[in-house]
């Protein structure tokens, strides 16, 4: 699909909101948030609330396509996963969805130095993505803890590889993807989003993908679809 | 008004999203973003795009009420303003609304050490608020530069006053207020929002207040209206 | 020993540098950096350069004592470890000791999700400390990557446990301990140091422990020895 | 002078500490901390404690030379000043030198939006530097508040100008210059220091310049003297 098939993108254009554009070059990397079972597998903790958006966007196929295109074009992909550990249960306060995640044991692992039970758990990566994750272009980062990368090493990893421009994809659009986007902007990265390689909660009266798309259109340099990203690679200076 | 008059808040309740609640105590402060003419005065650069939301929410009266209640109850208010300076025009890239703000000279000042022309400019505070701003409970912070407080001293100021819990208000809901909220959460503050003491862009097909309200309901501990904030003060442990 | 047996501490007192003091209370936690074999075991990568300081300070016994006193008094201990992973070898630049650490494969692990070969490696914790590490008062954090906690979740973990005051200990005094101290100060923590539960490189013409002690005395609220820390616990409000 | 005239630099070489080197290119900028009267003018609050080091290093002439060379070569200079405001007196805790600075009203200004009494005050820039400060290559940043740039917009300003490599100079070596250096390293900047365009407290038993030089030699990519910086410009890729 094309990004202008989204009403929000059309409306933004009609409203005259600038669209700075985003040129993919050798200092560009992809950041993928939460490519994990608890969002994307049918028995995942958050699947019931994101499945409608994931199906509409064709998120899993598009994320796979992004991984594949990155690998073929030698573009680095930085994975920012979400894990919780037993000591996180001792936290003394938290916002609404933090309460949800903790009550459902979302992304739960046995310990930071304990991989027991990780494989195929809700915290593990979706099987469809695993073929791409062991490749040389993949950098797995420290887990983030709320929604943004402030408490992980993502930004340092990007800078140590001389990355200046970031394409965002992954789950979920209005939470971790958007918080990552907002943080990377404050740190002086140039950011665009591959929006249909993402998805988020859709419940009656709560279309969070639409809400996120408004914000992301306003704060980033450009919104791509996966198809448009693929086309843009033809003109990329890699 | 009551927060449950907003459809989003009703929908969140029906969807079973937890509502952790927020108790106001002596470690609670208010953070107000961008209480400035370029948003809130009829000749302000962004007034045409936010005026509908500002009128619907009764934002100016509610912000004034928040300032007044804070002063009466000895609650500290931290102001996070938005200023641009001539050297910021040299920035080599930026997202969509950064382009908008720079092209319109929004929040523009002559220099960091130059107050010439500031008074009553778009960067100055709204006249209605000035009676509250010279009081002892007000701490004015370094300006933020994109949307969040990452490049200001807001968080340090809060911590140096032993603040652990924050009530957010100010302009605009989906940009600076939301980015401040997201950052404060990552830094381990407990955060709630006084949502109708805020407002944001509303354009055909782009109701950013509604979008922000979804996100804020999901990530913070509670959504207040100004009226509910006033009621909550009766039970506050100050 | 007493802190005033250190020349630097005496000199600071004579110079009239203020000593704000540090009262241990229920919002106080201990942060320990790098309690790992590569620093503290005789075959560790950095042992040859820190051993003199470690012996002089009696660092291992003092760190053990700090762990023991914390456990007995119910004080939380946050561990900030240092790990490198294979992808970190791809970093395109680094300072002098980053080069040293990478060339020596200091703190090396096989992968973030791979514990193979970790046990008893240079990256593992010193055996003497392991009896304390599985206890309820221990929170292990994401690894830091250069010297400070900016790229870990230490600060969030502290805040989520409502910690406002921090006692620093661990390796090495002028690098990770000092960078942690400096960062925690900027984030609005009140910080003191248990200086002889630490140690650092000592080479001809380069007494880094002494250098660090000067800085730490100037920037923190107080310098304790382990003995003084033990005494202070008698008056602590826990 | 040459950097190898410093004992610490000689000792580091003899100890085999790597010296990665630092090539000046078009993505390189200079960051100068606290070029202000309270450090560098004979009636400045901190002059009595830094004057010995400032004279030994020829700091004022060297800082002037750095400003001049930057201007001649079109290298951007980012100034990170230190200011305190009346509300900062309400801070509820602080480390030793924070107490010192507040008690002496160091860097004091009347308000963030009040320039009254600023000119020629301790917070103002040293007269010798003013001829360079109004030029196009100068970017003045938000003030820092403790010692590092974490609560200013320095890092964002650098990134918005696509700066990846930083040369540090300014006052004082072991406090603001070193905290800036440590923070910039954690954010993935490549950092070197022009060490004799800096100076710091020197009191009986407390040679903080020497202590800082040890740390800076260990954590950065290279230590220049001003003379060596001038020579390096001949081979710079600007």
Automatic annotation (TrEMBL), chains A, B, C, D:
The keyword Hydrolase applies. Pfam families: Isochorismatase. GO terms for molecular function: hydrolase activity. Residues 28-205 form the Isochorismatase-like domain. SUPFAM superfamilies: Isochorismatase-like hydrolases. The keyword Hydrolase applies. Keywords: Hydrolase. This is Cysteine hydrolase.
């Amino acid at each position: 699909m094309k990004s202008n098939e989204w009403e929000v993108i059309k409306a933004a254009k009609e409203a005259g909101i600038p669209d700075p554009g985003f040129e993919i070059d050798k200092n560009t990397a992809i950041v993928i948030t939460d490519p994990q079972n608890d969002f994307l597998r049918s028995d995942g903790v958050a699947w019931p609330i994101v499945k409608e958006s994931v199906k509409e966007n064709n998120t899993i196929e598009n994320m796979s396509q992004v991984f594949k295109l990155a690998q073929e074009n030698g573009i680095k992909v930085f994975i920012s996963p979400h894990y919780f550990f037993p000591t996180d249960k001792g936290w003394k306060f938290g916002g609404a969805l933090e309460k949800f995640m903790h009550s459902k044991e979302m992304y739960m692992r046995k310990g930071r130095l304990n991989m027991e039970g990780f494989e195929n758990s809700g915290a593990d990566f979706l099987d469809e993505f695993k073929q791409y994750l062991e490749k040389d272009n993949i950098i797995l980062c420290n887990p983030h803890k709320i929604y943004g990368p402030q408490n992980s090493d993502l930004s340092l990893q990007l800078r140590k590889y001389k990355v200046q421009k970031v394409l965002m994809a992954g789950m979920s659009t209005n939470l971790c993807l958007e918080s990552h986007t907002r943080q990377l902007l404050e740190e002086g990265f140039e950011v665009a989003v591959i929006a249909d390689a993402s998805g988020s909660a859709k419940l009656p009266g709560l279309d969070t993908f639409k809400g996120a798309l408004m914000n992301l259109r306003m704060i980033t340099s450009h919104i791509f679809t996966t198809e448009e990203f693929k086309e843009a690679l033809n003109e990329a200076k890699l």
